[in-house]
Amino acid sequence: MELQPIFSPPSSVGNACFRMRHQICMSMNHHMCKSDARNRVFLRLQSEYSFKISRGSIYCSNFSENNPTTPSISETTDAKVIYSVAPAMGHNKESHPECNSRVPAIMDALEKVELTSKFRGSEVIELQSLRPASVDDIASVHAKAYVSGLEKVMDQASEKGLIFIDGSGPTYATPTTFQESLLAAGAGTSLVDSVVAASKVSHNPPVGFALIRPPGHHAVPKGPMGFCVFGNVAIAARYAQRAHGLKRVFIIDFDVHHGNGTNDAFYDDPDIFFLSTHQDGSYPGTGKIDQVGRGAGEGATLNLPLPGGSGDIAMRTVFDEVIAPCAQRFKPDIILVSAGYDGHVLDPLASLQYTTGTYYMLASSIKQLAKDLCGGRCVFFLEGGYNLTSLSYSVADSFRAFLGEPSLAADFDDPAILYDEPSKMVKQAIQKIKHIHSL
Ligand SMILES: [Zn+2]
């Protein structure tokens, strides 16, 4: 399959994006790349960025000899969070919600509330010198023709500065997109290495968090989709199986949109359980409640569409009555999380009512689930989240959950903007999914 660039952006989600661009632009700061910077080599962008944000973190010289991206065992003994940063500064389109100010906004918030290694010493570790994913890693999920096709269209991206590679979203590419997408996927697999290594010497290994973009969960095996280039979480799932012999992978996707790409990659696979909660009727329209997997994989996909307006109460019930029992029955070897923060009540792209406190609860509960079920092996992957403030404070509160510290959500959340959740419809959806999956 040849990847065909699209040169006129269609609307759909794009319209919603553009409606909100004023709000997003107002939040953009000096991290924004100027257009001439697009032609810089991505590694240079990456290293400049890392230099700025990583004071106090671990450097290459401290890494174990076998794998240059994995901190040594002694370095992870006290760690409660280990994160990687791949902000894709060259992959950017002005006024697009999936822009290059997202990861820097998170890093700024983490610095501001003193949650980086500079303030936390060995409790919080940032991985350095990330290894880009190999083409074989990517091809464990995506068609090789797509991978080589994307590399080829980088020439056109260089010529034009920016091209569209998929109509939905739309999904754009710049001259650095291919390399930066490899780096994003590699930042995820590197964390899998670190968390697995730490779990061999500790019952309480650090939770991994890949602060990466472009996001991945809409990218289908044959190509890009919905702002996503490579399926970062899906690639990490295959990598965990292949590189570490972790056969059973449980993927939780709490992004407001259905993770259709991950869904499709493992639809007939009984060893990778994909569980997605998402807003009913939102992009891309897949993830109906009766989509449960196929063939040998039947029952290993769970899709729970939630009515618009669902919020903290709904998600707490879903966690207790659906996510936890489902994971307990599956008995995973590792839990991977598509962590989208666009279900936040302040997010411009959807209409759920999650709060910063909801994300704290999810982070804390999923960490505990991993501790109970799979030696604490758990890695979060950044997906959506387009209000830079709610995104960054929700990620920060997720870090607090991993550290076992109290939530500071009350300082950020404003209960006055919330309205009644559609509790009757939520209850019906939960009853139905429990019946379908015999929970
Ligand atoms: Zn999303």
From TrEMBL:
UniProt-listed InterPro entries: HDACs, His_deacetylse_dom, His_deacetylse_dom_sf, Ureohydrolase_dom_sf
Pfam families reported for this sequence: Hist_deacetyl
Lineage top rank: taxon: Eukaryota
One of the record's GO cellular component terms: histone deacetylase complex
CDD domains on file: HDAC_classII (cd09992)
Domain Histone deacetylase, chain residue ranges per copy: 96-400
SUPFAM superfamilies the record matches: Arginase/deacetylase
Protein name per the record: Histone deacetylase 14, chloroplastic isoform X1
Organism, as annotated: Coffea arabica
